[in-house]
Design brief:
The structure is a single chain. The protein is mainly α and about 400 residues long. The chain contains 18 helices and two strands. Helices cover about 85% and strands about 0% of the residues. The protein is globular. Residues about 55-65 have low confidence and may be disordered.
Amino acid sequence: MSNLSKIVERGEAMRERITRTLQSLRPVREAHGSSYLNKLVQRGEAMCASIAPTLQSVRFGDIVGAGERRYFLIGIALFVVAALVPLVAGGYALQLSISIVMYTALATSWLLFSGPTNYIALSTAAFFGIGMYTVAGGIDIIPYPLLIVLAALAGAALAAVVGLATLRVSGVYFVIFSLGLAELVRQIMTWLQHVLGTMSGIYVLLDRSENVYYWELLLLAAAVYLVGWWIGRSRLGFALRIIGNDEVVAVHCGINTARAKVVLFVISSTFAAIAGALVAPRWSYVEPGVAFSPFLSFQVVIMALLGGTHRLWGPVLGVIPFVLLWEVIAINFPNQTTLLLGACFLLIVYVIPNGITGLAEDAFARRAILPPRAREHWQRGLDAAAASLKHLQQRWNSRNA
């Protein structure tokens, strides 16, 4: 029996115990009319209602897990194909590919935390910039591989401090604080540069080819996917799904919600810091306005939302079209990037709130709902309509001939 099956069984047993307890309390409530008992029963019923969809989704994931080996082999094949890109592409195409794998790693790492918890974090730029400045500050005295490790530790430490201080709040308050975090760190780094007399920024000079940058970022993206895959099948992932459905229910189930959110926030932010450390030598010049740009945070969120936040592989479906679109916007409308970025965000939220993966899943679901005979009749109707249109076109062409 898999771990997910055991988790589902425990959850169903817990739901049954809650249901029996509520049934035993109902006669007492009717007899005494206690407001406290009414609230208790209502809270228990809400808990059962929230646990049910979570167990259903986990049970579905366990069923799908039977074919995980096939999906894993497909993922390896796609990774090998992606690794061959620098060997067949160069110049501008390779630069676009580097941007795609970088944003794939950032958007997927953002999804690790914001996807299951439904907390919209706009702090990606803060940790990305921490990684860049860690490399920029020590590139002349510390070996570059060690700097990447130090960047990861710095990002994790900052995320732990911020998470412990802020993840007790939710909703719009967390969004505002996460956005202000990047600006706060940017102002601190600007002040430090002013004190140290380096207001012009820091040069990061390292002799590396574009192929190396691409492969490093591709390995980072693969690591993010593997960690996300493991989290999704662990007790932490199960707890986070319950938190995303109803945090009050998660607390009553005995889940330490603050600890679970902080742990995942640290993991997500660490990957963002590593991405900044890998990109810093490629950008060659690091300054606060570039390293902690709020555009980066918004772009990552938009890419993840465009691809879809309900699947781990969703962000890559949003990264590819958005990077290409943003390249066109930056070339043709360099002064309207902020306006067009906001327009893209509004279109995604209102037109495709579930992303590309949501559209695809809805289409497959509608197709699966129809029984085979109904699908056959539907296909016959489409074929008949196509034949009728073709016949009308032939008659129109013969009349005008």
